[in-house]
Amino acid sequence: MTKIAREFLDQWVKEHIASLTHDADDTEARASARMCVADAEQHGISYAALEDAAAGDLVAFMAGTIRKAVRKEEKRANDDGKAQLT
């Protein structure tokens, strides 16, 4: 089940987190985790399986994923700005 949960978690993140452009506080990470759990349960994936797939802490996983997405977006925007100057 953990492999299925990890695949679900990776896909969920791609669909819901990758587009964020601002750092999230703990509240946003918790809200993302709750939404992910609700979606996972509709697919027969338990909270425990998601926790395992997220290295034991789904909220921390979401917070880290959000931070990475924001940094990636900031880098892309910065690179685009540099390209326009040349």
Explained architecture:
The protein has 86 residues and is mostly helical. It has one domain (2-85). The protein is elongated and about 45 Å long. 78% of the residues lie in helices and 0% in strands. The protein has helices spanning 2-16, 26-42, 47-53, 58-85. It contains 4 helices and no strands.
Question: Largest sheet at a glance?
Answer: none
* Mean of residue pLDDT values: 87
Shape summary: elongated
Rg from C-alpha positions? 15 Å
SS-derived structural category? mainly alpha
> What order do the SSEs take from the amino end to the carboxyl end, as H and E?
HHHH
Task: Give a short summary of the structure.
The protein is mainly α and 86 residues long.
Helix and strand topology:
Blueprint lengths: L1 H15 L9 H17 L4 H7 L4 H28 L1
Which labels suit this protein?
single chain, 86 residues, mainly alpha, elongated
